[in-house]
Each structure stands twice: as C-alpha cells, then as structure tokens.
Structure prediction request, 182 residues.
Amino acid sequence: MRELEAKLFIPETGPDTVLRALEAEGRQFSPAVEQTDFVFARSGDVILKPDPGTVVARVRYESDGSDPTLTVKRRRSNELDRDEIELRVDSGTNAEELLSMLGLTHLITVKKKRWESNDHAGAHMLVDAVDELGTFLEIEILGQDDADAVARLEAIVSHIDSQLFAGAERVFKGYDRLLLER
Prediction:
C-alpha cells in the first residue's frame, strides 16, 4: 500500500497543546500508546542517504498489549513517500531474527508516545512525542496513488501551518534518520 505522509515538528509545544488544538477542530484521538521501534536496514547509509527503491524495516512493540508489527518500507520519490507492507506477528523476536537472516542490521531504536485520530476526509493524523526529538504531527493518506491525494495532503499541511501552529517546521525525514543524524 502506498503511504503519503507529511510530518511537522512543533517546537516548544507539548503533545497536550497539539491535541487540544486538533480536538477543537473536531478530531478525536485515542489514548496514548507507547511504541518502541527496532529499525533495520542493510547499512546506516540506507537511512542517512535514502534513494528510491531502498528498503527499511522495523519491528514495533506497543504498550497496549497488541501483537508486535513487522513493517517493510520501500522508498519511492522521497523518504516520506513509500510503499509499505505491515503485518502483525506473534513473536517480535522471531521477526527481528528473520530480518537479520535477510541481511538487515538493527541500527537504531525509536521510542515515542503516539495518539491516533479518527480518519477524517481520507486523512489520518498522529501526534507523536518522540524521545530525544520532541513533538510531531504526522498526516497520512493511505492507499492512493494520484495527484489529488498529494494536493489534499498539502492543503491539510497549509491549514495546520496557517491556522493552528504558525511555527511548525515541515520535516522530510523519518524519526530513525533524525536520531541517527544527532
């Protein structure tokens, strides 16, 4: 499935402030879930200098007791435009061993608290409080491969930037890369 994503860093603002502003616009969010992602790739360069076609995988563990997920992402035009396959696995440890057997190396661990919104007009919003990085808002449009989806995504980002968080910074990198660059 294709995933189009826009990511905004909201400096000096905690997740509670972001959630209140979005809830005032009619969004509803789930309770926070703590997520720990073990990120795998062939080398650090795959994450630090991503090219179209490169593959990054992760095993995610969540505090809500759900089964771990194995996600494989193949870059398209940029780091936040990718094909993605995600599946629940009964053993995160086995998924990690599988990735290692396929020649991928565990490069970094990303820890965050995440609040998820209801789907609204085909867009999904996520508020993330990422350890060592801060508060982010992600907007995702899933499964659509057309110019209209890109235009809708950009319109949502423009609205958020102009109406809600004027100091928001657009980020074109994944959390794994942001952490590796530190």
